[in-house]
Structure formats: structure tokens, C-alpha cells
Specification:
With about 425 residues, the chain is an alpha+beta fold. The chain has 2 domains: about 5-170 and about 230-315, 2-Layer Sandwich (BirA Bifunctional Protein, domain 2); about 325-419, Anticodon-binding domain (Rossmann fold, 3-Layer(aba) Sandwich). Helices cover about 40% and strands about 20% of the residues. It has 15 helices and 16 strands. The strands form 3 sheets. The chain has an 8-stranded mixed β-sheet, with helices on both faces. The protein has a 5-stranded mixed β-sheet with strand order 13-12-14-15-16, sandwiched between helices. Strands 2-4-3 form a 3-stranded antiparallel β-sheet. Strand 12 (about 325-330), helix 12 (about 335-350) and strand 13 (about 355) form a beta-alpha-beta unit. The two termini are about 45 Å apart. The structure holds adenosine-5'-triphosphate and magnesium ion. Adenosine-5'-triphosphate (ATP) binds near residues 115, 127, 260 and 282.
């Protein structure tokens, strides 16, 4: 096939069960979010580049190498959104929607990152996420973590994931820690991967969650952030932990969990799986107090998470709710066109799925019924037209009966009730 006609590397088309599983995940997330009072919202797929550069950090992986940035056409530089939190904060501030706080918001949509495509890592991927903005207490973190846990439970994934929890403390704690970490890493510079040697100068905390084995050895023995927390930060984290305990939400403290974006502080967390290779994080988030201020708004607290739909989908496997089987309406005689259309509409009025087959022999139409997994076929020929009836074939049992047109929907509903 000509090269231009393939999907772009790192992007995917979705059909059939894959798309149904995808939609099911979005619907489950939206419904779980609603039970916590999170209202759906949407932001554009691209933003002024500043929205991300100002907030994610000049040294973050996303800003340094993963953004799709281009000229908007009016002389401004814009970027396809790589994540949803900064746009949500931007939307609240620029839309002046800060009267009712805390704001509880749910979003879903595509995200774009120029990454090396591999299993579970795409250039266009999709997230569902929630943001709780204007809630400074640790209970806010507990709420969003509980919502994440509930979503994973709803998707049947509780046994496949573990909750990793950590804290970055407040700015002062993090700065003190960074100094100690840099001193330590400097002593082991030679053992680090080339990537991490670069990170050491720009974003040393990122060395801790490097996936390179040589970095992991060094990271394992690095000073622990938890030992550098000031009393406020330690109290904050203790409260998160004790309320999670009270809700029976299990977690493990992961001293190497640092999220890669500048805006995080205090609580960070990830639900991870060992079933997707290196792409183990399925739902990740943390606290980002002050993000609204970076957008030129008031300084508000914030906390939330985002989950990768493709990764959730890969984990879910065949776990799909059944879809109703359609009824095929087959037109055996040309004259039956109007009656076929009417039958199909009448079935739909009754809430059934009806598909028209207008072409080819009866045999061919029934083969199509089989291919689409139809439960029943409605057959319309000359005889049926003249008698004012329709023939209905139960495609599971093969039984066929004639019913008056008006009784068609009731007849099919009864057939489906019967199995
Ligand atoms: P990773 O460590 O795997 O690169 P991340 O820290 O970059 O993840 P976040 O920015 O926290 O990821 O995004 C939240 C979630 O979105 C991730 O936990 C993951 O499920 C999903 N995700 C992130 N990047 C990708 C991608 N390139 N392809 C598919 N899913 C992704
Ligand atoms: Mg990443």
C-alpha cells in the first residue's frame, strides 16, 4: 500500500470489540466520576504552547522532546495537548469559572506525545481523567484515589493493579531533598545511563524513576525524600495514609515514585500492573497546588489523575458487556421496500436493533444475518405483502412463523425473552 495511506506510526484505528471496549471504559469512568460529583467537561485538542511550557516544566520529558508544536496560522505557536490537567486549569481560569469551589471535573479525549511507539505507548493515545480544583486538604487526594480505585474495580481490574503512593512534600522539602540527591548522584555519575547523566543536571528527581537497570541500582540506594519532609509535609502525607487505611484502600509506599512534571507537590500515586511490560502505569496522578496561578489565575490547590484508555483496554481483555443482537429485515421482493423500512422502524420504536438487507437473494441475506449475529430475520416477500403479514424466523431455533405487521415488535421481544 502507498505509504501515505497508512495510519501514522503510533496511531491506531479502532473497530468492533476494540472500539466497544474503549467506549465502555470511557462510559465507566464518566459514570464513576459522576458518583463523586465530577461533571464532564472538554477542552480543545490544542492550546497555546505556553499552557504546557509554563506548567509542565522546561526540563520535563514532555516539553523537551514529546510535544507536537506548530504554527496556528495566526502567528501563534500551538501544541497538540500532551495531557489534560494544564488545559483544565487554563479553562477554569480563562473562563472565569472559579466561583464555585472546589470544582470537580471529568474529561476524556485524545492526547499526543512524540514518543517511541511500542506496546502500550502511542503517539496519539487517550485518557480519562478527573480534576479536583480548590481543595487543599489531604482528603482531596484521598477522594481522587478512591475514585480511581473504584473505576479499576468497575472494570474488573482490582486484582491486576497495585497502588503505589509517595509524596514530594512541599516546595521547601523538595528543594532540600534535591540538593542531597544531586550530591549523591554526582558521586555515582559514572554508573548512570547517558540519559540520566543529562537528567542529573536538568531534572535530577527523574533519575529515580528511570527504567534503565544501571540507573535503578543507583536509585535504590539514593537518599529518600521521605527523610527530608518538613513537619507540614509529613503531617499531610500521614493524613492521606490514615484516611486511605480507613477506606481499606491498600497501597505500597514507593520511594522512587516521582512524577515527571514540575507542577506536582505532596501526594503522588500510580496504579501499576506487571502485565504490560515496561508500560506498567495505568492510572496516575497527584497534587498540583498552584497550577491555576501559573495560568495567571488565583493560587488554588488541585489534585487529580489521568488513566490511559489503551492500557486499561489491554488489561481488560475480553471483559465486555454483551451488546444486543440485531434483527435482520430481509426484502425478498422489490415491492416490499416500504414495508421493510416500516418494519425496521417499528422494531427500533420498541428499542430493538434492526438492520436492513436490501440486496441479493434470500440465501445471501440470511448469510449476512448470520455474519452480523442476528437473533431473528424478518422476511418480506410478495405473499407476505398480499396477506398483510410478516414472516419471522428465529435464527437460533430455525422456527418460522407469520405474524400481522402490528404484532412484529411484540413477537420479537417475546422471542428474545425466551432466550
Ligand atoms: P509513562 O511513565 O508510562 O511514560 P507518564 O508518566 O508519561 O507514563 P502520565 O503523563 O502520568 O504518564 O499519563 C497518565 C497515563 O496515561 C499513564 O499512566 C498511561 O496509562 C497513559 N499514557 C501516558 N503516555 C502514554 C502513551 N504514550 N501511550 C499510551 N498511554 C500513555
Ligand atoms: Mg511518559
Amino acid at each position: 500500500m502507498a505509504r501515505g495511506l497508512q495510519p501514522v506510526r503510533g496511531t491506531h484505528d479502532l473497530f468492533g470489540d476494540d472500539k466497544r471496549r474503549f467506549d465502555h471504559i470511557v462510559a465507566a469512568a464518566r459514570s464513576v466520576a459522576a458518583t463523586y460529583g465530577y461533571a464532564p467537561m472538554a477542552t480543545p485538542a490544542f492550546e497555546f504552547t505556553e499552557v504546557f511550557r509554563r506548567t509542565l516544566g522546561e526540563t520535563s520529558d514532555i516539553v523537551t522532546k514529546e510535544m507536537y508544536t506548530f504554527a496556528s496560522g495566526s502567528g501563534e505557536e500551538v501544541t497538540l495537548r500532551p495531557e489534560g490537567t494544564a488545559p483544565v486549569a487554563r479553562a477554569l481560569v480563562s473562563g472565569g469559572r472559579l466561583q464555585v469551589l472546589p470544582a470537580r471535573l471529568f474529561y476524556d479525549g485524545p492526547m499526543f506525545r512524540r514518543e517511541r511507539p511500542q506496546k502500550g505507548r502511542m503517539r496519539q493515545f487517550h485518557q480519562v481523567g478527573i480534576e479536583l480544583i480548590g481543595e487543599p486538604s489531604p482528603v482531596g487526594d484521598v477522594e481522587v484515589i478512591a475514585a480511581g480505585a473504584r473505576l479499576l474495580e468497575r472494570l474488573g481490574l482490582t486484582a491486576s493493579v497495585a497502588l503505589h503512593l509517595h509524596t514530594l512534600g512541599n516546595g521547601a522539602s523538595r528543594d532540600r531533598y534535591r540538593t542531597a540527591l544531586v550530591t549523591y548522584l554526582d558521586q555515582h555519575r559514572g554508573r548512570l545511563s547517558a540519559d540520566s547523566q543529562r537528567r542529573l543536571d536538568r531534572n535530577p528527581l527523574r533519575v529515580l524513576d528511570s527504567k534503565a537497570p544501571e540507573d535503578r541500582e543507583v536509585a535504590d540506594e539514593a537518599p529518600r525524600l521521605l527523610d527530608y519532609l518538613d513537619p507540614d509535609s509529613a503531617r499531610f502525607f500521614a493524613e492521606v495514609r490514615s484516611q486511605l487505611d480507613a477506606l481499606n484502600i491498600g497501597y505500597e509506599i514507593d520511594p522512587l515514585l516521582v512524577r515527571g512534571l514540575d507542577y506536582y507537590m505532596h501526594t503522588t500515586f500510580e496504579f501499576v500492573t506487571d502485565r504490560l511490560g515496561a508500560q506498567g502505569a495505568v492510572l496516575a496522578g497527584g497534587r498540583y497546588d498552584g497550577l491555576t496561578e501559573r495560568m495567571g489565575g488565583p493560587p488554588l490547590a488541585g489534585t487529580g489523575w489521568a488513566a490511559g484508555i489503551e492500557r486499561l483496554s489491554m488489561l481488560s481483555g475480553d471483559n465486555l458487556p454483551a451488546t444486543p443482537r440485531p434483527v435482520l429485515v430481509a426484502r425478498v421482493s422489490e415491492d416490499a421496500t416500504t414495508q421493510a423500512l416500516r418494519c425496521a422502524e417499528a422494531l427500533r420504536d420498541a428499542g430493538l436493533a434492526a438492520e436492513l438487507a436490501l440486496q441479493g437473494s434470500l440465501k445471501r441475506q440470511l448469510r449476512h444475518a448470520d455474519r452480523i449475529g442476528a437473533r431473528a430475520a424478518v422476511l418480506l416477500g410478495k405473499r407476505e405483502l398480499e396477506a398483510g403479514v410478516v414472516s419471522v424466523r428465529d435464527l437460533d431455533s430455525g422456527d418460522q412463523s407469520e405474524v400481522p405487521f402490528a404484532q412484529l415488535p411484540g413477537h420479537v421481544l417475546e422471542m428474545i425473552d425466551g432466550g
